[in-house]
Structure formats: C-alpha cells, structure tokens
Design a protein that fits this description.
The chain has 170 residues and is of the alpha+beta class. The protein folds into two domains: 33 residues, no CATH class; 131 residues, Nucleoside Triphosphate Pyrophosphohydrolase (Alpha-Beta Complex). Helices cover 21% and strands 35% of the residues. The strands form two sheets. Strands 4, 5, 6, 7, 8 and 9 form a six-stranded mixed beta sheet that branches. The chain has a three-stranded antiparallel beta sheet with strand order 1-2-3, with no helix packed on it. Strand 1 and strand 2 form a beta hairpin. The protein is elongated and about 65 Å long. The mean pLDDT is 94.
C-alpha cells in the first residue's frame, strides 16, 4: 500500500523509484529517500491481583472489551504515554510497567507495543469519547475479548496463564 501512495516526491513532485533491497523510495530528481511512516502506539493490560481492567470503545463489536491503548505523542516516551493514556481514558494510575511484546498493526500503519502494568490508585472515570465503559473483571469471569492472535488477547491470556500457574504452585 505504501509503495502505491508514494509514487511522487513530497519535496519536489518528481516520480520516485523503489530502492534496491530496502523498503524505501528515492526521488528521481532531487534524490530524497523516503521510508514508510510508522506510528507507535502502546497497548496495556492493567492488573489488580485476580482482576484486569478492560474497557469498551464505541467502535468495538457489541459486548467486547479490551485492553487500553493509545498513540505515542511526539517527544513522549513509551512510559509517559502509558501513564497519560490510562489517566485520560479511565482516570487511574499505574505502576510497575513491564514490556510484553509488540505487533505490527495495519491501521493506521501502527506498531503496537504491549505492556503489563499494575494498578496504583484512583477510581475508574471513563472519558466518554474514546472509552464508553470500563471496569475490573475477575479472571474467572471475563467478557468477550479481542480475537486470538491480537496483542490485546495475548496480553490477557499471558496474565491469565501466569496467574493460573502461580495458583497451582502455591
């Protein structure tokens, strides 16, 4: 898709050509090399013992809940983004951020960077725009979740598996 939408140079308007062995395009006139834009976004599972904080966006499939997520702003670290997004979307504070993994996401050319975080305080207050509902869900009674293979689902399943294995050891 990116190759089709970047056939012309954004600097001088001349046609661009595919660079050899790179995912980039080079202007045939001014030599400007461009690369696909990538938008980093954090996605976070907030936990509180046997409960997970899940939320609903108005654009979700009816009844489905997921982890919290948001785009990283210019000049912001991933950690700062996590604190800001969670505070903005549901009004709570988090601590003990742990990197989980990442997943490319096609819309809009995103890289989802997953974290686990522990609840640190505050009451849930949904923003009413990006989030229409949020709540603490016991691990034994989760609502409909994002599809298998999505990083949101992987975050939830990893915590569920970790918690289950810790319970059987004790």
């Amino acid at each position: 898709h990116w190759d089709r939408t970047h056939q012309y140079c954004g600097q001088c308007g001349a046609p661009t050509v595919q660079e050899n062995h790179q995912h980039s395009r080079r202007c045939s006139r001014c030599g400007l090399t461009t690369f696909p834009r990538l938008s980093p976004a954090v996605i976070v599972l907030v936990t509180r013992g046997r409960e997970v904080l899940l939320a609903r966006s108005p654009r979700f499939t009816p009844g489905m809940y997921s982890t919290l997520a948001g785009f990283v702003e210019p000049g912001e670290s991933l950690e700062e983004c996590i604190h800001r997004e969670i505070r903005e979307e549901v009004g709570v504070e988090v601590a003990n951020l742990r990197y989980f993994g990442s997943q490319p996401w096609p819309f809009p050319h995103s890289l989802m960077i997953g974290f686990h975080a522990e609840y640190a305080g505050g009451d849930i207050v949904v923003d009413g725009e990006e989030i229409e509902a949020a709540g603490w869900f016991p691990l034994i009674k989760l609502p409909p979740l994002p599809p298998p293979g999505s990083i949101a689902r992987k975050l939830i399943e990893a915590y569920l598996n970790k918690y289950s294995s810790n319970q059987t050891k004790g």
